[in-house]
Every structure is written in structure tokens, then in C-alpha cells.
Design goal:
2 domains; 0% strand; KfrA_DNA-bd_N
Length: 208
Amino acid sequence: MARSGLYKSDVQKARDALIAQGINPSVDAVRVALGNTGSKTTIHKYLKELESEDGGAGGKRASVSEALQDLVERLVVRLQEEAEERVAAVRVDSDAKAAEHVAALQAAQNENSQLRARALELEAALQEQALALVASQADHQRESTMRQVAEQQVSDLQQRLAENEAHRQSLEEKHQHARQALEHYRQSIKEQREADIRRHEQQIQGFS
């Protein structure tokens, strides 16, 4: 990203210093001289402006190799920018999916907590009903029926709890897979970009 306050005079000083050292003032070399700051597109624009100014003052013309080198440098800059844009787009999409997985996971955990609390309440109710059965034999049949209903409710809640736990684990696995896929894509983009840069650098050397 371009640093705030990068002026053409900064680029000119860095370029002149490289030339004085016998170093070709390419976009990457100038950016390194600037402390690895500034947009490559901005640096390239300023270098072209300075080249035009120098050509007007001294009547110099760029050689064929210099023109080819400039073309390759612009292609490298464009490839790098496109790769960064693709990585950013994938990152935004992956972050959104990760947020959805986290939200769904949190919702499942909240529901599990509510189900556990409800199960505890029903178990407490069952204990109270058991005591009531001992104290009142006359109401035995009614209490037995209520107990069966409560036990069925507990069983149903426990089944839902198990299903929600399985769903939560599935969400965790999907979340992990999404993160691994993103990391793999980022690495492949990085390797492709490095390969493109090396290939263009070799082309530059071949034209020089």
C-alpha cells in the first residue's frame, strides 16, 4: 500500500542515489531505497514522469532494452496488484463464512445450555413426583402417568441435546476446513506470484 505523503521528489532522490551507485533504478529497487514503502504504481508513475523530464532536457531517447524493461516492470506491477486483489477478495469471503460458522456454533451452544437447564428442571420435578408417590398411594396412578410423561420429555430433550452436539461438531469441522482452504489458497497465490516475478525478471535479463 502507498504510504501517506509520498512525493515525486522522494522518488527522484532514491532514483538518483541508485544511479550514483551504478544500480538500475527499477520500481522494486526504488521502493527498497524508500524503505519498502509506497505504492509500486505510484513509484512507476513518478519514474516515468522523471524519465520524460530528463528526455526533454537532454534530448535522450530510451533504448529498446529500456523500453522492454519498462514494459516488463509494468506487467510485474500489474500482476502483483491483481494477485493482491484476488487474495483480498478470498479473505473477505472466507472471513464472512467463518463469521457465519462462529455464529451458528454459538447459537448451537446456547441452545445446548438451555436444553441442559430444562433437563435438570425436569429431573428435579421427577424427584419431587417420586416423593409424592410415597406419600399418597391414592394418587399413584396419576403420579405414575405424570412421571412417564416427564421421563419421555427428558428422553426427547436428551436426544435433541445429542443432535445439537453433533451439529456443533460438524460446524467446527466446516470452520476448520474453511480456514485450511483459505491458507492453502493464499500459499498458492503467493507461490504463483513469486513464480511470475522470477519469470519476468529472467525475461528482463534476457532483453538486457
